[in-house]
Automatic annotation (TrEMBL):
InterPro entries noted in UniProt: PI-PLC_domain, PLC-like_Pdiesterase_TIM-brl
PROSITE patterns: PIPLC_X_DOMAIN (PS50007)
Keyword Signal appears in the UniProt entry: yes
Higher taxonomy: Eukaryota, Viridiplantae, Streptophyta, Embryophyta, Tracheophyta
UniProt-recorded name of the protein: PI-PLC X domain-containing protein At5g67130
One Pfam family cited in the UniProt record for this chain: PI-PLC_cat
GO BP annotation list: lipid metabolic process
Length: 362
């Protein structure tokens, strides 16, 4: 081989090594520089408390409805939930008053839903003659704690549901709206009423929810829970504590080996409530350490709460900065939950292969 041909061959080798072809994108936990370096379903993220530099970590859920089926009751599946879904770093609307409050997410609500989030925690307030989403205190919204009018976020949910006719979204409202029918009016204006799951169809005494396929067929694809008891009768907004149990949020709910209930909730092992919500996020959200919180610590807490809840696995797992982890993160946690719920295995993908890991008593 002549010298020019050797040089040309070496040059081609260098070119091939530097061009990132689609089938050469980095896999889970491999080092990266840009999001484009990572394979589909991953993004490039740092986690200085766990590793140096940046690695490809998960950014998409596994959809159990598509992977398996929709033939089981709604409460037999697990759903990734974002805490303060609206409190994102980039304020959704231009406003001269800066937000001086904590943020809990990076992505818009549309992006969250696109990546597989199926339950949103929203704080609703009376503000400026309308209903707003605020991360505030004392039951009052202020210019510096206000993120956007609630209808903006609700229209994002409506757009998702209209574009994805086989999906179900749950809204969990921390509600401070006192104007009569204030929430009802904004739901009507957003176009979400046509997806509303009626209270009359919600199970009592811990019974199973309707089959997912039947909910989809009837277009009952929006489930709304609220924190004000009287609105169940006055506005048809389900009072959260009639239907689910929930652990303590923040620092007090993250003690290793413990899973205390939230003050408003009945005991976690109360089987008269058929849904289980597990919170796992710090009192003060810090993005740089959330990657650790959303990793092995999350898996361990879900296992602890499973025991405390009378051997019931969570249906909703609520986190901050849902994409931040050291690898599989909240997505792997939900895969585990769906595996446990659907076939008793540690990962929902085992269910898809026909495995059953449930230990049967003799």
């Amino acid at each position: 081989m002549g010298v020019p041909l050797v040089i040309f061959s070496v040059f081609l080798g260098i070119i091939a090594a530097t061009i990132a072809l689609p089938n050469e994108r980095h896999k889970l936990s491999e080092k990266c520089t840009f999001n484009e370096d990572c394979a589909t379903g991953l993004f490039c993220s740092s986690c200085s408390v766990e590793f140096k530099g940046s690695r490809c970590v998960r950014s998409l859920t596994t959809n159990p409805f598509k992977l398996l089926n929709t033939s089981l009751p709604f409460n037999k599946y697990a759903y990734l939930t974002t805490h303060n879904s609206f409190a994102i770093k980039r304020r959704p609307i231009p406003d001269p008053t800066p937000v001086v409050t904590f943020t809990n997410q990076e992505d818009t609500i549309s992006q969250q839903l696109s990546n597989g989030v199926r339950a949103l925690m929203l704080d609703t307030y009376d503000f400026k003659g309308d209903v707003w989403l605020c991360h505030s205190f004392g039951g009052k919204c202020h210019d510096f704690t206000a993120f956007e009018p609630a209808i903006n976020a609700l229209k994002e949910v409506e757009n998702f549901l209209s574009s994805n006719p086989s999906e179900i979204v749950t809204l969990i409202l921390e509600d401070y709206v006192e104007v009569p029918n204030g929430l009802t009016n904004v739901f009507i204006a957003s176009g979400l009423i046509k997806y509303w799951f009626p209270i009359s169809n919600m199970p009592k005494d811990g019974k199973d929810w309707p089959l997912v396929k039947d909910m989809i067929a009837k277009n009952y694809r929006l489930i709304v829970f609220g924190s004000q008891k009287h609105k169940e009768e006055s506005e048809g907004i389900a009072y959260q504590w009639n239907y689910m149990v929930e652990n303590q949020y923040g620092k007090d709910g993250m003690v290793e080996g413990k899973c205390p209930k939230r003050k408003d909730s009945s005991e976690l092992n109360d089987r008269s409530k058929s849904l289980v919500l597990i919170n796992h996020f710090r009192t003060i959200p810090i993005q740089k350490v959330t990657c650790k919180v959303n990793s092995e610590d999350l898996i361990n807490m879900l296992s602890t709460c499973h025991v405390v809840a009378g051997n019931r696995w969570a249906n909703f797992v609520a986190v901050d900065y849902y994409k931040r982890s050291d690898g599989g993160g909240s997505f792997q946690a939900v895969d585990m939950l769906n595996g446990k719920l659907l076939c008793g295995c540690d990962d929902v993908h085992a269910c898809a292969l026909g495995y059953s890991c449930t230990i049967r008593s003799k």
